[in-house]
Amino acid sequence: MRLSLCEEDRVRFSLPEWLEFDLRNISVADMDELSDRYGFDPDDWPAPFLGELTLEQAGDPDAVPKPRRWRNHALCWMLLRQAGVPASWDEAATVKYMMIRTESTAEPEAESRGKEATVATASARSAGSTTRRSATSSASRRRKST
After folding, report:
1. pTM
2. CA–CA separation, 134 vs 51, rounded Å?
3. Which end of the chain is less enclosed by CB atoms within 10 A, N or C?
4. 98: pLDDT confidence band, cut at 50, 70 and 90?
5. For all residues of the chain together, what is the average pLDDT?
6. Measured distance CA(137)–CA(89) in Å, rounded
7. Mean pLDDT of 12-20
């Protein structure tokens, strides 16, 4: 996946427009930091980052895992470190997260349009099914009831 920070953050960290990001490309030290901080087994990576299905979602083939609260902060931290910036945890918290654009190398039409989305949206799209939600899915029922 390719990510781009807002111009202010790119200048501050001396980064190019697009950065490559891979959840599997994490150093042992960074994994230790995350697993100590959030109490997961490093052997389970990247499942702790991707989230887990809620009990309510069980059995729904279109269910998307609910992200952990710390995911956005961890994403910014890992992205900077993978780009060669020795950012601290606190420095990563100052990245303007909502200004991060994604460009999935698996979606060539999105690349050509310069599609903007939040990282959470891109992660959900890649983790979820490509089939359309049925009218009886839990998300559809919630939408209809509001």
Report:
1. 0.64
2. 23
3. C
4. low
5. 75
6. 38
7. 92
Res. 105 pLDDT band, cuts 50 70 90:
low
Contact 77, 29 (CB under 8 A): no
Both tokens assigned to 16: 């190019």
Answer whether residue 14 shows pLDDT above 70: yes
Provide DSSP, the chain.
Answer: -EEE--HHHHHHHT--S-EE--TT---HHHHHHHHHHHT--GGGTTHHHH-B--GGGTT-TT--PBPPTTHHHHHHHHHHHHTT----HHHHTTS-GGG-EEE-TT-HHHHHHT----HHHHHHHHHS-SSPPPTTSHHHHHHHH-
Cβ burial, residue 92 (10 Å; 0-12/13-18/19+): buried
Amino acid 104 reads S
Question: Does the structure show a pLDDT above 70 at 106?
Answer: no
- 43 pLDDT more than 80: yes
Between the two ends of the chain, the Cα-to-Cα distance in Å is 34
